[in-house]
Design a protein that fits this description.
Layout lengths: L1 H7 L3 H13 L28 H8 L1 H8 L3 H14 L7 H22 L2 H23 L17 H7 L3 E2 L2 H8 L5 H6 L5 H17 L6 E2 L1 H16 L9 H8 L1
Parallel strand pairs: 1-2
């Protein structure tokens, strides 16, 4: 609560609920909220209607627009957390969350407006929120975007689900520091409570374990992962055939 609400200005309860759903069934239609259709289309399978007009124009170019759109993600994270807390859905420690979040967001805004001229304050807030959103998105996007997206009806075990639908990012300590350990995404999904420093040590063991059992273990560079994300989003936006569906998914869907 202190780190999420008081430091980052995000609702811990909302984030925990969202992230727990994602960990249980990553890249699964109807179960992983991270791939629900919104401003971006991650799969044509969960679209309720065809996107036309301005929405269609945006969807066809959503890969190229993805990183510029992240400039708004910081604001979105704050707003979504606040919205979650004021809704009637059950939230543990709601009063504490609201108090911490109000102090963080209200206090921060008051300090900025008090010490800076109004125009400069707005510019400062815009830059800060923009950088926050880009950093968060750039850290999380390489892990699953462009990996197979599966229907909720697909029967797949825990090991295959977590390994086949996740992607690691190579690059050593520099990338690990930048991504906060999320570059070891496969290990993070297999052992979600494992401290980040231990994920690096676990990676060779998991890689060898998967190789011995013929389970595809995906790892690429940070730059290549971003290229995959952009290409994938453009492909989906154009309603093209998903080139990232793994043989396991195709085989089980056909069965």
């Amino acid at each position: 609560l202190v780190i999420a609400n008081l430091y980052a200005g995000m609702s811990y309860g909302w984030w925990q609920h969202k992230h727990s759903r994602h960990h249980a069934k990553p890249n699964t239609l109807g179960a992983d909220g991270d791939i629900d259709a919104g401003a971006l289309v991650f799969s044509t399978a969960n679209l309720t209607r065809e996107r036309t007009g301005l929405a269609g124009w945006f969807a066809q170019r959503q890969g190229w627009l993805f990183f510029p759109l992240l400039l708004l993600e910081g604001l979105n994270l704050h707003v979504t957390g606040v919205r979650r807390l004021v809704q009637r859905r059950p939230v543990k420690r709601r009063a504490i969350e609201i108090s911490f979040l109000s102090l963080r967001l209200g206090g921060y805004l008051a300090v900025v407006l008090w010490f800076l001229p109004f125009g400069v304050a707005l510019a400062f807030l815009g830059v800060q929120l923009g950088l926050f959103g880009v950093y968060m998105g750039a850290s999380f996007a390489p892990n699953h975007k462009g990996m197979p997206i599966v229907p909720a009806s697909l029967k797949i075990g825990f090991l295959h689900r977590q390994v086949l639908l996740s992607r690691n990012v190579s690059g050593g300590r520099v990338v690990e520091t930048f991504m906060g350990g999320l570059n070891h995404q496969i290990e993070h999904h297999l052992f979600p409570s494992m401290p980040s420093p231990a994920l690096r040590a676990a990676a060779p063991v998991v890689r060898e374990f998967c190789a011995e059992r013929g389970i595809t273990y995906t790892e690429t560079t940070l730059g290549h992962s971003y290229a995959i994300v952009v290409r994938y989003l453009n492909e989906v936006g154009l309603a093209s055939r998903d080139p990232f569906q793994c043989p396991l998914v195709a085989q089980r869907l056909a069965a």
